[in-house]
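for ur thesis appendix - Peptide/nickel transport system permease protein. copy paste whatever u need, i formatted it the way the template wanted (i think)
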Amino acid sequence: MTFPSSTATDAAAESADTAGAAGSGSAVVGRSPGQLMWRRFRRDKTGVVSAFIVLAFFLIALLAPVIAALYGKDPYTTYGQNQPGLLNDFGYPIAPNGGMSGDFWFGLEPGLGRDVFTQLVYGIRTSLSIAIVVTVITTVIGVAMGITSGYLGGKTDYVIGRVIDTLLAFPSQLFLIVFLPVVEAAIVLPEEETPVWLRYVSICVVLTVLGWATIARLLRAQVLSLRAREFVEAARVTGASPARVIFKELLPNLWTPIIIQSTLALPLYVGAEAGLGFLGVGMTEPTPDWGRMFQVGVNVYHSDVTYLLFPGVSMLIFVVAFNLLGDSIRDAFDPKTKR
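the 3d part is after this line
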């Protein structure tokens, strides 16, 4: 019986490896950048789990009225004050664990006796709606300012750059606390109560004014690098207008940092809105708000720790999941940044 020589065996193995590499290469070449990104993202189990968690939060916020209707409660009715036997003389739930029961899944709010579960669900709706509005507007303004500054250069770049530096130098939380009452005082008379819509708009406006500078600075640096590239110079030489260069040459190469920055910014705005509510300058009563739940929970945690537990755990899960999702999206778009 004759055995093949080691040389023949090595040659056959090398041929098989080459054929496999060629087949794999042709498969990769046949995929679009979007398909490659999606393939890398699906392989990231952390990113996939985070995406499902974030999607669940969005669905809860979107379907909050439906969930409340099926649950049979709302976040505005003071059940503890209307129904005897739910709160004691000090305003704390009589039942253990914050009053949790089959009727009130997460218990009752100390003092007013409102349902904690529906407050939490509608609080997600409030925080996410503000964060989404601010993220969209800041992204649009930041993209416009960053591309304009980086592409035009000169005095335009200098002026926009100084505005960006000024906004980034502001202590944002302190500015928000001081500026929100000033804005409302200029519109609402002292004897009148601040409308809910005005507080909502004021929070969105102030967060937007302070938020667009970060993405603008990032895109300005990207455009300064791209405008010296050969394909941009070729477009200019062929007589392309500045608008065509920006929308056809520059913007397609900026989608990755835009999407990544927006994904990482949204949980920051959720936290900022909750922080304003905790400090007393967020959404006004009776609008459910996570920040105000923290404020009440801090005052009653020595007697009812469960009321502080639910918004705290929810905020932690959402922010961590969204940040992990942002990291996974960044790695999927640009695998070279993967740690």
